[in-house]
Design a protein that fits this description.
Blueprint lengths: L1 E6 L3 H14 L3 E6 L7 H5 L6 H4 L2 H8 L4 E4 L10 H7 L2 E4 L5 E2 L12 E3 H8 L16 E5 L3 H11 L12 H8 L5 E5 L11 H6 L6 E5 L15 H13 L9 E6 L2 E9 L1 E13 L2 E12 L2 E4 L3 E2 L8 E2 L4 E2 L5 E3 L2 E3 L2 H4 L8 H16 L8 H11 L6 H13 L13 H7 L2
Parallel strand pairs: 1-2, 1-4, 2-3, 4-19, 6-14, 7-8, 7-14, 8-10, 9-10
Antiparallel strand pairs: 5-15, 11-12, 12-13, 16-17, 18-19
Bound molecules: NADP nicotinamide-adenine-dinucleotide phosphate.
């Protein structure tokens, strides 16, 4: 028998568990730990609430979760309630699938001003992550600036511009829906330090911006490279650029909410008195693919700033960490003997949810080569005894199903659920 502990119940965690079942069938026991009492990580609190079809992938994880050989061990924080070393004593392999839940810092003067948020916090707020429930962004100003040209920037710009009706069928949490309902934002500027050919936005997600009821995306035609150059782009990016070309026919003037793409624009400082009021921006040009400052500066008014410039993994005491890359120091997923990482915790915050599946299968192959038939460790019985002595209040998958039922029962009409946004409420709801 092999005993595997997976830390993190998001996509990387569940795909790894699925791979372990495929590899060893009945000859493996997998425990999936999460610090929250609810599973699925990024699917629940990262994927946009109006992207329910993407969230549907959790049904696949549920099949894995319902296997007798897989357990969900919720409400347990590894590195705090139980150490990595202790887990290593019970399990043949400990796999960190903790994702990258912290914002890459902007590191600019003024980045601590009020109403400046990183996307982890802002997305967590509208998605009901207990850590960010009380964020209370002020939406009473006119202009939001979203920094970055990836899919997260698109999510944030789209959510900020949607009407209550457009959230029908989504699971955006009530506190965010109510706040957005009275938002006074009229202008959302998406700031990119490079140009239209360097965006990280995928075509389907970018195309959605063209179908909003009060948001009108606009691109300055002068920012678009010569159309002939599009032929050199890889097909996905070419499709995205086609959307930008279509947006270049729109005018932001007179739009209910103008969503303006500001290319070749590097933020240099955030300005304001206590609260952000403007961003100092330097015009750039591209040299060898990099954004280089031109020395021309301008001030962009900003009553709200959300920086969507990528994420970092949270270090765990005793686990080697690559500070520069913001993830665990690892060699193809191996960190130390018996300790592994997978998904964003291994390779950084890139790719789609599906990218984590081959990742999970690859790490299980490595583990299989390393642990053979297992070392006869205590596995879950060892952990359970420790949990008992420490009086840990473990939340099981069956408990989660009751929490889920309670969330469905209190959903507003047409919505799949109204999430509990407080850990105590989640725990209470398991009955
Ligand atoms: P991303 O795709 O890596 O984009 C980050 C953006 O931030 C880039 O435009 C980057 O510009 C910019 N940036 C980085 N540092 C900056 C700085 N200091 N100043 C100004 N701009 C800066 O990251 P993401 O949007 O956070 O997305 C993470 C991953 O999740 C991606 O793989 C994404 O596709 C995925 N995702 C997918 C979906 C979906 O499929 N629906 C939704 C959300 C997220 P440079 O290119 O110039 O560095």
């Amino acid at each position: 028998m092999r005993h595997i502990a997976i830390i993190g119940s998001g996509p990387a965690g569940y795909y790894t568990a699925e791979a372990a079942l495929k590899q060893w069938g009945e000859d493996v026991k997998v425990d999936i730990f999460d610090r929250l009492p609810v599973p699925f990580g990024l699917i629940r609190t990262g994927v946009a609430p109006d992207h329910q079809s993407i969230k549907g992938v959790s049904r696949r994880y549920e099949q894995t979760a319902l296997s007798d050989n897989v357990r969900f061990v919720g409400n347990v924080t590894i590195g705090q309630d139980v150490s990595i070393e202790e887990l290593g004593g019970f399990y043949d392999a400990v796999v960190l699938a903790t994702g990258a839940p912290r914002d890459r810092p902007l590191d600019l003067p003024g980045d601590r001003l009020g109403n400046v948020f990183g996307s982890a916090a802002f997305v967590g707020w509208y998605n009901g992550h207990p850590e960010f429930t009380s964020l209370a962004p002020d939406l009473s100003g006119e202009t939001a600036v979203v920094i970055g040209m990836g899919n997260v920037a698109l999510d944030v710009a789209r959510i900020l511009s949607k009407t209550r009706d457009e959230f029908a069928g989504s699971d955006i949490v009530a506190h965010a829906l109510d706040a957005l309902d009275v938002s006074k934002l009229r202008r959302i500027v998406i700031l990119g330090r490079r140009g239209p050919h360097q965006i990280m936005m995928t075509p389907k997600e970018l195309g959605e911006l063209g179908h909003l009821s009060r948001g009108t995306p606009a691109v300055d035609p002068q920012d678009m490279p010569d159309e002939a150059e599009d032929a050199l782009l890889e097909p996905g990016l070419r499709k995205s650029v086609n959307h930008l070309r279509a947006f270049a026919h729109n005018s932001a003037a007179g739009a209910d909410i103008a969503i303006e793409f500001d290319f070749f624009a590097a933020p240099r400082a955030l300005l304001g008195n206590g609260k952000v009021e403007a961003i100092e921006v330097e015009r750039t040009r591209i040299e060898d693919g990099r954004a280089v400052g031109t020395g021309a500066f301008y001030e962009l008014p900003a009553s709200l700033v959300v920086s969507c410039i990528g994420y970092r993994t949270v270090p765990v005491p005793g686990v080697p960490f690559d500070e520069r890359a913001g993830r665990f120091a690892n060699d193809e997923g191996r960190i130390l003997p018996g300790l592994y990482c997978v998904g964003w915790a291994r390779r950084g915050p890139s790719g789609t949810i599906g990218t984590n599946r081959p990742d999970g299968f690859a790490i299980i192959e490595q583990i299989a080569a390393d642990i053979g038939e297992g070392a006869g460790k205590a596995g879950r019985a060892g952990f359970d005894a420790l949990a008992e002595t420490r009086k840990l209040d473990v939340v099981t998958f069956r408990d989660w199903k009751r929490i889920e039922e309670a969330e469905s029962a209190r959903a507003r009409s047409g919505a799949p659920r109204e999430k509990f946004v407080d850990v105590a409420d989640m725990i209470r709801a398991r009955g």
